[in-house]
């Protein structure tokens, strides 16, 4: 069996499963945040269910609009805050923790071989730790809160084998954008993607999280990477639970296999109006930008901040550009402070914001005006997503930083 088949078989109490089979899986962790949580709570209450099935397996977190930007968001957060306290949910992180997809792994809620669901499409990020993480709807989550179970159709698996060493100035974001452009936004609909090969094995956990984070942009149900010592080292001291890693069988059957050699890979940029509209950086050099955004659940980790700081150190951003930097968790923020990265950003005349989603989804802290363009390290660029009538280009932290310096989309390699 493949990784996803083994995880679902275990969760359903079965010896084996096959693609297309419907299984009722036990849920190990269920997460809601303030942007999608209230419909779940309302659905649970309307069903007459007063208590979640297991408060120790529920995580509630505020990350999209933090602190509250208006009366409506304040009321939502107040209601969810009261509900979480009444439910005796220990894993309740108010406005202080950061983006859910960074906080849950940091706090030890994501473990290899488990099933983690969240009312956020980028829950697939957790596959970098060898678990089945997937986004579900608020109504589905109400059912999970009531029963601790959810049905799944066992997905077929697309295996992507990646070998070679990434060139200087090329990082995991460039790789996943290249794959996304090839597979397209619907090319992996309801499939599980297994990323493997020597390139993946050499990647940091942070880089792997970037890869799995964007599996949903290909339509995938999950992105998965076989857990190794890097995962175990990260989780050491973060969870007391025993780790049960799951690995694909040597002769597992895949829907198809794609192979990449990355030795000559160039930086990539996703251009509006769709995430899979990917072009080599050289084809969009000189495109005017008004804002640069470094952050999000895709590229707001310490590794990403380091990459951007390498480009920005001793320099100042272009006078016509606003650059917004948002560490994706309080832990990342503290580490960045200790390393002097925040000082580098401030001296470069960037704006630093508290951990959260920020402008990624068109939320507070960086909405664009009509006719403006942003180069962002985030994961979606549907036209108007960051502000009505605006455009967003997606790229690596290196490209984001170089573009902020030049005022146009720029090649970071000239600064390295």
From TrEMBL:
GO terms for biological process: L-leucine biosynthetic process. Its cofactor is [4Fe-4S] cluster. Keywords: 4Fe-4S, Amino-acid biosynthesis, Branched-chain amino acid biosynthesis, Iron, Iron-sulfur, Leucine biosynthesis, Lyase, Metal-binding. Binds 1 [4Fe-4S] cluster per subunit. InterPro entries: Acnase/IPM_dHydase_lsu_aba_1/3, Acoase/IPM_deHydtase_lsu_aba, Aconitase_4Fe-4S_BS, Aconitase_4Fe-4S_dom, HAcnase/IPMdehydase_lsu_prok, Homoacnase/IPMdehydase_lsu, IPM_dehydratase_rel_enz, IPMI_cat. It catalyses: (2R,3S)-3-isopropylmalate = (2S)-2-isopropylmalate. Heterodimer of LeuC and LeuD. Catalyzes the isomerization between 2-isopropylmalate and 3-isopropylmalate, via the formation of 2-isopropylmaleate. Belongs to the aconitase/IPM isomerase family. LeuC type 2 subfamily. This is 3-isopropylmalate dehydratase large subunit. It comes from Formimonas warabiya.
């Amino acid at each position: 069996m493949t990784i996803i088949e083994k995880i679902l078989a275990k969760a359903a109490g079965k010896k084996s499963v096959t693609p297309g089979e419907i299984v009722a899986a036990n849920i190990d962790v269920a997460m809601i945040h303030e942007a999608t949580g209230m419909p779940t709570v309302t659905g649970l209450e309307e069903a007459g269910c007063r208590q979640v099935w297991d408060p120790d397996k529920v995580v509630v977190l505020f990350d999209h609009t933090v602190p509250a930007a208006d009366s409506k968001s304040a009321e939502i957060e107040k209601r969810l805050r009261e509900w979480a306290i009444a439910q005796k949910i220990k894993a309740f992180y108010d406005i202080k923790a950061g983006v859910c997809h960074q906080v849950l792994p940091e706090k030890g809620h994501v473990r290899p071989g488990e099933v983690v669901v969240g009312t956020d499409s980028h829950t697939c990020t957790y596959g970098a730790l060898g678990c089945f993480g997937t986004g579900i709807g608020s109504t589905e989550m109400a059912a999970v809160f009531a029963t601790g179970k959810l049905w799944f159709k066992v997905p077929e698996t697309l295996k992507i084998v990646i070998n070679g060493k990434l060139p200087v100035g090329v990082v995991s974001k460039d790789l996943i954008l290249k794959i996304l452009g090839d597979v397209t936004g619907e090319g992996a609909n309801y499939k599980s993607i297994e990323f493997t090969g020597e390139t993946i094995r050499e990647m940091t956990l942070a880089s792997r999280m970037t890869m799995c984070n964007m599996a949903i942009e290909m339509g995938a149900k999950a992105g998965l990477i076989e857990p190794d010592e890097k995962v175990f080292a990260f989780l050491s001291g973060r969870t007391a639970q025993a780790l049960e890693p799951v690995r694909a069988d040597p002769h597992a059957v895949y829907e198809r296999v794609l192979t990449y050699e990355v030795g000559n890979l160039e930086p990539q940029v996703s251009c509006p109006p769709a995430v899979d509209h990917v072009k080599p950086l050289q084809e969009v050099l000189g495109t005017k930008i008004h804002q640069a955004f470094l952050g999000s659940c895709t590229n707001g980790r310490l590794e990403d901040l380091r990459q951007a700081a390498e480009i920005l150190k001793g320099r100042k951003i272009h006078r016509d550009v606003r650059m917004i930097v948002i560490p994706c968790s309080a832990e990342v923020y503290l580490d960045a402070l200790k390393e002097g990265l925040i000082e580098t950003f401030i001296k470069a005349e960037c704006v630093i914001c508290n951990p959260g989603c920020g402008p990624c989804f068109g939320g507070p802290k960086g909405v664009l005006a009509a006719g403006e363009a942003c180069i962002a390290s985030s994961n979606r660029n549907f036209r108007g997503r960051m502000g009505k009538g605006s455009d967003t280009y997606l790229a690596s932290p290196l490209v984001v930083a170089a573009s902020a310096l030049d005022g146009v989309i720029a090649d970071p390699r000239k600064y390295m």
